[in-house]
């Protein structure tokens, strides 16, 4: 009986308190900003913009349960009850955003003087964009305010990670995108149980995968020997340059797969792949290999053709008259 | 395990008296001697016996069973720790990749300049090859270049014409065929012009260009010289047929240059003569305010 | 110089090409003639033994080539003309016979198409 | 006056003028400044002019040498002006130039301690990995047999030499045992491109020449079958066979030149009435070979010679018959019969002669060897030959025979029949020991300039996978010698 009447009351206020007795549930969704305040004599209306509540939304709780003990007249008490917003932002155009913003400002005031790390060392984070934020909060957020907010977020993000308070971390969490593209973990590279090191290399539009194992200097590329696969000696030298420049020819066997592009691209893709695989076997060779020009991926590609041009840059012949 | 052709492998069985070492590079070698298993190191943990077994099976499939090497005992963690302690006693950083990150020694840095794969050929050879190239066919140009060098190598030693002296410091003519790259360099550098004639349009009055000598740097000089050689070559008829004829003609012209028979020498003299003649224009009043 | 069917040929000329200079003797027929007398396709006129040259001349003289072949063509055209066909008329006018356009490029027909056709 | 003087600054001293002379006649002329260079132009008057040729007059003006300096242009794409004055090459001259074979190069260093090839050198397994020079007389013989090819790297060295590899020793030992047992060694040499097939034939010919065999060689089988030499039907043959007189004459002359010493020791045992000139019994085979003077009689003479060589009995040497370019005779030729049908290569008499010996249909009564090498360069596809060789290889290895494609119609049964019982030797890459021997020879000849050590051998071996022709390309046809 009691519970049913309670439900009736909360339904009347469109509240969202679904709790069982003795347990405070966090209120969510759009009704959580309302709380039911007992009209106790002497109670003041909360009008300050400073809310005494902590910024943590999980800790926003509904008002004390309405006492429906038989002593007091339920109807009487109910008649005195009235909804009061949890946050004064309720009366603004974008209450949730404003609450977050205010919380951030408070944090910035508190922790703004903590030591920071230079921007170059900060971990890359994909922040939510204005559109993302609008969608997730369902509010019409102004771009200028969002920009100010994001600046604050980024400032707080540069606090030294060892000193960063938990509150800050938690406050920044909702500003991050759900999928973090920068958070790709590097694959563990190493020699597998058969003694092979595997690496990939690219050049122009060729892709090479190379497996390197200690051996007698045999090379198989797409199941052909080196001279069968590369007719040009220059290309053969290119392909094995990492081994050649470190005097490792004859000490490793190479098994490789190459695809795409032409002979030069394939040979130099192999250079990179074999160099990377060699560095797995022998990390100390990296400086030598870098000087041999084997470590850097050559980023040059064929320039795309443009509209209105015959080739990438060539214009159609044109005479004024 | 593949057979090691390393002399160091012979010393593996020897015990090493530890001795304080001063230089890390020596220490690296010492570590190499201490290691019983060449395949084991921190970077690549491939010391299980499974690896050896599989590799051996593969080698047998290839039909090349290596000489039996005493099976390296797997190094226990304790031993490794002891070894690291020992290294620390030498004053080494036990995690230094210079010490541990290699199997056959690290090449001395900086490595030789021709060990960079972008600069693997001699500079003159590289430049001349690019000048030989037509329609972007670099592979053909390189084959031509190789044939030119072979032709220079297999033709008789040139007879130097004293009236057309080679560049000072060039080797004796009998030496030239043994070093075809040097041969080519000597030929090109000998006929390379020192200057070119630069023209300033309409400055000489009457719409004529004002000519001034301008110095050339080494690469430019070689380009001019080889351009002249190519001009001559393209006009010569070939005596045979087939793809070896163009390089033959180029090589013959290079020999002709060294022997002083080539018309390229005249071009060089011409441009030098003209350069000295137009030197008067350097201080011409018309050149006032013009940056050289 | 070698004389085949009254025509003098340079010794360096290919036999096959020499044969093809005769009217109505094309690549197919010349190949067959070569095969018949066991002359390899790259043989030069100068290398032919006199016996073969005589045989070739005899062979050619039995074939309808040159004027005989021309005569046949001319007869055919004449017949068309006499019947009064469209094709005959086109031949006489020196215009294309087989329905080609005549807006431009009728050079070949202007050169060749006539009643007393020569080429 | 300043112009000529300053021009001197751009000249350089004559290399020919000894320093002392220049110093002795030194006069403090204004134009011999420390930086000046001089007497090169010959105008200085300080040099002894005796041997100095007069410098050419100033560049001819007017012949495209205009004062505006247009001559300086280095236009990339200038129209080829051609040779206006030079007379055009005679017919065949350009081809002769292309096919020219130069066997020595006086610039290359002579190799110390290079052993000459001796009759037993290639039989001894100890010699594997060493080089052996071809003696001078044998060079001429091999040259007349056309054993050398223009694409090989002979002009780089002082003297032609070959590498004795394990296959060489194997083949020579088999040839020797065949000769001693009076059997016929029938063998096909195969392998990938430039694995040394033609060179192995050359070595076998060298062995034959040194051990008093009669060596017959068909250097390019394609010359027989691509319809570029004369042919004529042989009367009274069924099916009709064709003789190739011109080629036959060339071949007899090569045989006569190369084997003169052997042929002059053997005498004829038959009378040959069909020959154009009377060769009495007991005249030398050399005289018999000399009877071929005209193409018309070449085939008859060759038949007579062959008959003499095939006579069983004492005082007849073993015969080596080699052919390069097997796929060319394993197909229908480009010749046509009088009925305008393509003639099968096996119907050409010379080819038939060779393939009969190769297939074992006729055997060499005095022992000997018949060797054929496949070619991978300019070779027609011959699926039957590929299949037959693969089957023979599988037989030798004891594995399962490859089967013919059931729906493929391009097989040529006559060719397969020829290769039914031959043995196959497949050439592969060199071992590192052999590679090292080769590279040491190159280094000694002054071509390979780095030191030959384990590292260098491993490097070049890796780049070429040990294939001998690729080794040559990597080391001898390179931009960084």
Automatic annotation (TrEMBL), chain A:
GO terms for cellular component: mitochondrial small ribosomal subunit. Residues 302-321 have a biased composition (Basic residues). Keywords: Ribonucleoprotein, Ribosomal protein. GO terms for molecular function: RNA binding; structural constituent of ribosome. It comes from the Eukaryota. It holds the Pfam family Ribosomal_S9. The keyword DNA repair does not apply. GO terms for biological process: translation. Residues 299-321 are annotated as: Disordered. Belongs to the universal ribosomal protein uS9 family. This is Small ribosomal subunit protein uS9m. It comes from Cercophora newfieldiana.
From TrEMBL, chain B:
One of its GO terms (biological process) is translation. SUPFAM superfamilies: Ribosomal protein S7. It comes from the Eukaryota. GO terms for cellular component: mitochondrion; ribonucleoprotein complex; ribosome. Its main location: mitochondrion. Keywords: Mitochondrion, Ribonucleoprotein, Ribosomal protein. Residues 111-279 form the Small ribosomal subunit protein uS7 domain. The keyword Repressor does not apply. InterPro entries: Ribosomal_uS7 (IPR000235), Ribosomal_uS7_dom (IPR023798), Ribosomal_uS7_dom_sf (IPR036823), Ribosomal_uS7m_fungi (IPR047988). It holds the Pfam family Ribosomal_S7. It is found in: Mitochondrion. PANTHER family: RIBOSOMAL PROTEIN S7 (PTHR11205). Belongs to the universal ribosomal protein uS7 family. Component of the mitochondrial ribosome (mitoribosome), a dedicated translation machinery responsible for the synthesis of mitochondrial genome-encoded proteins, including at least some of the essential transmembrane subunits of the mitochondrial respiratory chain. The mitoribosomes are attached to the mitochondrial inner membrane and translation products are cotranslationally integrated into the membrane. This is Small ribosomal subunit protein uS7m.
TrEMBL record, chain C:
Residues 96-119 are annotated as: Disordered. Keywords: Ribonucleoprotein, Ribosomal protein. One of its GO terms (molecular function) is RNA binding. Residues 108-119 have a biased composition (Basic and acidic residues). It comes from the Eukaryota. GO terms for biological process: translation. The keyword Ribosomal protein applies. The keyword Ribonucleoprotein applies. One of its GO terms (cellular component) is small ribosomal subunit. PANTHER family: 30S RIBOSOMAL PROTEIN S13/40S RIBOSOMAL PROTEIN S18 (PTHR10871), SMALL RIBOSOMAL SUBUNIT PROTEIN US13M (PTHR10871:SF1). Belongs to the universal ribosomal protein uS13 family. This is Ribosomal protein S13.
UniProtKB/TrEMBL annotation, chain D:
Keywords: Mitochondrion, Ribonucleoprotein, Ribosomal protein, Transit peptide. This is Small ribosomal subunit protein mS29. InterPro entries: Ribosomal_mS29 (IPR019368), Ribosomal_mS29_fun (IPR017082). GO terms for cellular component: mitochondrial small ribosomal subunit. Residues 37-60 have a biased composition (Low complexity). It is found in: Mitochondrion. GO terms for biological process: mitochondrial translation. Belongs to the mitochondrion-specific ribosomal protein mS29 family. Residues 30-91 are annotated as: Disordered. Its main location: mitochondrion. It comes from the Eukaryota. GO terms for molecular function: structural constituent of ribosome. It comes from Cercophora newfieldiana. Residues 72-81 have a biased composition (Basic residues).
């Amino acid at each position: 009986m009691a519970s049913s009447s309670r439900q009736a009351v909360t339904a009347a206020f469109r509240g969202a308190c679904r709790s069982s007795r003795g347990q405070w549930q966090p209120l969510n969704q759009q009704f959580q900003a309302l709380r039911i305040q007992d009209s106790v004599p002497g109670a003041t209306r909360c009008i300050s913009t400073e809310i005494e509540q902590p910024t943590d939304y999980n800790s926003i709780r509904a008002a004390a349960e309405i006492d429906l003990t038989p002593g007091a007249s339920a109807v009487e008490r109910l008649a005195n009850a009235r909804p009061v917003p949890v946050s004064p932002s309720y009366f603004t155009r974008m209450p949730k955003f404003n609450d977050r913003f205010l919380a951030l400002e408070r944090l910035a005031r508190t922790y703004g003087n903590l030591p920071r790390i230079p921007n170059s060392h900060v971990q890359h984070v994909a922040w939510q964009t204005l559109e993302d934020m609008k969608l997730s909060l369902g509010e019409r957020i102004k771009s200028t305010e969002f920009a100010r907010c994001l600046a604050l977020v980024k400032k707080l993000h540069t606090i030294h990670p060892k000193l960063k308070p938990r509150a800050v971390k938690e406050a920044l969490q909702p500003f991050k995108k759900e999928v973090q593209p920068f958070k790709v973990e590097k694959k563990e590279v190493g020699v597998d149980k058969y003694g092979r090191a595997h690496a990939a290399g690219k050049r122009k539009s060729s892709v090479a995968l190379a497996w390197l194992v200690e051996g007698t200097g045999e090379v198989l590329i797409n199941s052909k020997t080196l001279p069968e696969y590369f007719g040009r000696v220059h290309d053969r030298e290119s392909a094995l340059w990492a081994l050649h420049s470190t005097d490792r020819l004859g000490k490793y066997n190479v098994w490789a797969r190459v695809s795409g592009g032409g002979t030069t691209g394939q040979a130099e893709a192999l250079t990179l792949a074999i160099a990377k695989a060699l560095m797995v076997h022998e990390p100390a060779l990296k400086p030598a290999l870098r000087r041999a020009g084997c470590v850097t991926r050559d980023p040059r590609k064929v320039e795309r053709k443009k509209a209105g041009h015959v080739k990438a840059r060539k214009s159609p012949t044109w005479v004024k008259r | 395990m593949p057979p090691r052709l390393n002399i160091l492998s012979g010393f593996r069985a020897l015990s090493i008296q530890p001795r304080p070492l001063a230089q890390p590079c020596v220490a690296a070698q010492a570590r190499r001697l201490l290691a019983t298993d060449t395949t084991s190191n921190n970077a690549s943990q491939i010391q299980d016996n499974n690896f050896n077994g599989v590799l051996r099976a593969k080698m047998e499939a290839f039909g090349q069973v290596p000489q039996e090497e005493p099976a390296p005992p797997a190094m226990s963690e304790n031993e490794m720790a002891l070894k690291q302690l020992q290294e620390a006693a030498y004053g080494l950083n036990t995690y230094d990749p210079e010490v541990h990150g290699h199997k056959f020694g690290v090449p001395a840095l900086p490595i030789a300049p021709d060990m960079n794969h972008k600069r693997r050929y001699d500079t003159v050879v590289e430049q001349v090859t690019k000048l030989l190239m037509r329609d972007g066919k670099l592979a053909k140009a390189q084959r031509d270049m190789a044939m030119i060098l072979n032709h220079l190598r297999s033709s008789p030693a040139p007879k130097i014409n004293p009236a057309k002296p080679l560049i000072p410091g060039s080797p004796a003519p009998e030496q030239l065929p043994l070093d075809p790259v040097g041969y080519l360099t000597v030929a090109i550098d000998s006929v390379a012009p020192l200057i070119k004639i630069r023209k300033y349009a309409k400055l000489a009055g009457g719409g004529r260009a004002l000519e001034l000598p301008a110095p050339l740097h080494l690469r430019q000089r070689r380009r001019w010289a080889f351009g002249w050689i190519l001009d001559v070559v393209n006009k010569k008829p070939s005596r045979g047929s087939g793809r070896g004829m163009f390089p033959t003609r180029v090589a013959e012209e290079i020999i002709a240059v060294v022997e002083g028979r080539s018309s390229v020498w005249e071009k060089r003299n011409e441009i030098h003569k003209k350069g000295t003649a137009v030197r008067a224009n350097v201080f011409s009043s018309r050149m006032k305010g013009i940056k050289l | 110089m070698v004389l085949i069917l009254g025509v003098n040929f340079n010794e360096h000329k290919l036999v096959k090409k020499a044969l093809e200079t005769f009217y109505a003797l094309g690549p197919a027929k010349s190949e067959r003639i070569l095969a018949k007398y066991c002359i390899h396709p790259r043989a030069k006129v100068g290398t032919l033994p006199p016996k073969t040259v005589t045989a070739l001349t005899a062979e050619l003289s039995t074939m309808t080539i040159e004027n005989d072949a021309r005569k046949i063509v001319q007869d055919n055209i004449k017949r068309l003309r006499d019947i009064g066909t469209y094709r005959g008329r086109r031949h006489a006018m020196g215009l294309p016979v087989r329905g080609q356009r005549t807006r431009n490029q009728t050079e070949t027909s202007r050169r060749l198409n006539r009643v007393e056709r020569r080429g | 006056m300043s112009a000529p003087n300053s021009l001197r600054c751009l000249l350089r001293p004559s290399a020919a003028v000894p320093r002392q002379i220049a110093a002795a006649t030194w006069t403090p002329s204004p134009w011999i400044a420390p930086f000046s260079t001089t007497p090169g132009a010959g105008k200085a008057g300080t040099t002894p002019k005796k041997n100095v040729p007069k410098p050419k007059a100033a560049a001819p003006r007017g012949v495209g040498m205009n004062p505006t300096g247009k001559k300086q242009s280095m236009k990339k794409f200038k129209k080829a002006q051609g040779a206006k004055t030079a007379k055009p090459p005679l017919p065949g001259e350009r081809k002769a130039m292309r096919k020219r074979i130069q066997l020595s190069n006086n610039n290359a260093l002579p190799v110390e301690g290079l052993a000459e090839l001796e009759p037993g050198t290639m039989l001894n397994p100890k010699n594997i990995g060493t080089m052996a020079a071809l003696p001078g007389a044998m060079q001429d013989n091999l040259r007349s047999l056309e054993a050398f090819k223009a694409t090989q790297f002979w002009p780089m060295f002082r003297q032609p030499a070959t590498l004795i590899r394990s296959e060489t020793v194997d083949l020579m030992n088999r040839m020797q045992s065949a000769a001693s047992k009076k059997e016929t060694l029938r063998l096909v040499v195969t392998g990938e491109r430039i694995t040394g097939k033609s060179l192995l034939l050359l070595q076998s010919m060298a062995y034959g020449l040194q051990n008093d065999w009669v060596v017959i060689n068909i250097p390019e089988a394609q010359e027989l079958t691509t319809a570029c030499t004369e042919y004529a039907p042989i009367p009274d043959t069924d099916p009709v066979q064709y003789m190739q007189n011109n080629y036959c004459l060339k071949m007899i002359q090569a045989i006569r030149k190369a084997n003169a010493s052997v042929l002059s020791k053997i005498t004829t045992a038959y009378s040959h009435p069909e020959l154009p000139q009377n060769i009495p019994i007991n005249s030398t085979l050399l005289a018999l070979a000399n009877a071929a003077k005209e193409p018309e009689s070449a085939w008859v003479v060759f038949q007579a010679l062959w008959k003499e060589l095939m006579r069983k009995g004492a005082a007849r040497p073993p015969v080596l018959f080699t052919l390069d370019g097997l796929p060319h005779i394993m197909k229908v030729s480009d010749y046509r019969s009088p009925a305008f049908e393509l003639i099968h290569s096996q119907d050409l008499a010379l080819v038939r002669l060779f393939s009969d010996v190769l297939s074992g249909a006729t055997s060499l009564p005095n022992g000997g060897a018949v060797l054929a090498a496949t070619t991978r360069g300019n070779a027609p596809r011959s699926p039957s030959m590929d299949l037959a060789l693969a089957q023979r290889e599988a037989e030798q290895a004891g594995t399962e025979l490859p089967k013919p494609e059931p729906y493929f119609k391009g097989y040529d049964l006559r060719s397969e029949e020829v290769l039914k019982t031959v043995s196959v030797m497949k050439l592969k890459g060199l071992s590192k020991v052999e590679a090292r021997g080769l590279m040491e020879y190159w280094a000694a000849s002054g071509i390979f300039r780095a030191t030959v050590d384990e590292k260098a051998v491993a490097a070049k071996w890796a780049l070429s996978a040990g294939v001998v022709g690729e080794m040559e390309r990597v080391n001898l046809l390179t931009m960084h010698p």
